[in-house]
Amino acid sequence: MTTSFLAALQALLDPAGILTDETALAGYCLDQRRRYRGQALAVARPRSCEEVAAVVRLCAEHGVPIVPQGGNTGNCGAATPDESGSALILSLERMNRILEVDADNNTITVETGVILADAQAAARAAGRLLAADWAAAASCQIGGALAVNAGGVNVLRYGNMREQTLGLEVVLASGEIWGGLRALRKDNTGYDLKQLFIGAEGTLGIITRAVLRLFPLPTAQALALVAFPDPDAALALLRDLQGRVGDRVTSFELIGQPCLELLAKHFPQLPQPFSPAPQWLALIELSDCGDSAELSDKLIEALAESEIEDAVLARNAAESEALWRLREEIAEAQRREGVSIKHDISLPVSRVPAFLAECGPKLQAEFPDAQIVAFGHLGDGNLHYNVFRADKSQAAYQAEAAINAIVYGCVTQLGGSISAEHGIGQLKVDALTQYRSKLELDLMRGIKQLLDPQNLMNPGKVLRF
């Protein structure tokens, strides 16, 4: 069967459209955290939606599982095949055309293999902002961002990928093409089907094109790195700023002291604005169309009336870039440090300080060597809450279940979620069954069964059957 399937696949695609060499496959079969390593029959690299549909129909005919893959920058193993070697990786990397920038309609239409940074640049060239933004922008693809409903640093003002998406084109498990590629802000013609596929991690269909919202390109910014005694003081400043300037608060990024220690160790060339390092920092950005001086004045006024310990304001673009690098390199600094138990959690914004106050002592009572590296998007309640131990090798994963139980227990008690913007993938499949109700899981399985009755679309991810 494998020989006949591969022969049929080769007939569908051009010579560069299929990879079977073991060396060529290796990078596609390993996730970016180097935690999940699988095997695959081949990698298919179609150039169009029609080719994707033809490949999917062939897989359905032969019963071959499909693992959709974008930039392979995910954190939960959603784009990595299992070890059976029975699956086909379907890479969207060659579907990388920007199809239209409609400045009057404030939309951009792209194939989903487009790199996020390239889409941002195309929007910027038209005087518009594509608000989706995070540290992996130079390597992640639009399709992967949609697949996990990615968030990033601008969610506070602009929302997750769900809020930034108007229309999709999707290849279903049957090989049919759903043409929902509409550039409309109002379309009340029944169920909003696109929302089924955003955040589904390729388990319901393969997103091939998307229409995304654009916004006026901000001409005014004010940026400050602010030191706080505790998260409560940071939250108080967030409330005050939103009262003063509304949705011009674009980003409010909370950073714990251990993050600064890792940055100083692994990125000594980056600025260290405060000595000694404070317990908590927030990187705060205001943006709008208009005058930067006005925004800076508003920010300075709020800082002057808040319980802060110190602050540094960026005076120009170079200083802004340097301060943003402090935030953006935290993940890489952690990777260089070694293995940590990672959590991408969300809480009601008002309960973030309570979580930080309660969870840390519980962890350290059970694991005295635990070092907590916490940072994230305070403005939308999303924390990246990571736990290092003295042994930073792969052996650290032996305590993962016990650590997760403490963290997720605190999250659940405070009305939060075990996954905010990184998805479920392979990593949290079992956890999902513990923290979502039976009814919710049954509804999700019903949708999966309806759209993918053979369970060929990214099996083993999100839901377990």
From TrEMBL:
Pfam families: FAD-oxidase_C (PF02913), FAD_binding_4 (PF01565)
Organism annotation: Formivibrio citricus
Family classification: Belongs to the FAD-binding oxidoreductase/transferase type 4 family.
GO biological process: respiratory electron transport chain
GO molecular function: catalytic activity; FAD binding
Domain (FAD-binding PCMH-type): residue spans on this chain: 36-217
Cofactor: FAD
Protein name, entry field: FAD/FMN-containing dehydrogenase
The keyword Flavoprotein appears for this protein: yes
Keyword Flavoprotein: yes
Superkingdom to which the source organism belongs: Bacteria
UniProtKB keywords: FAD, Flavoprotein
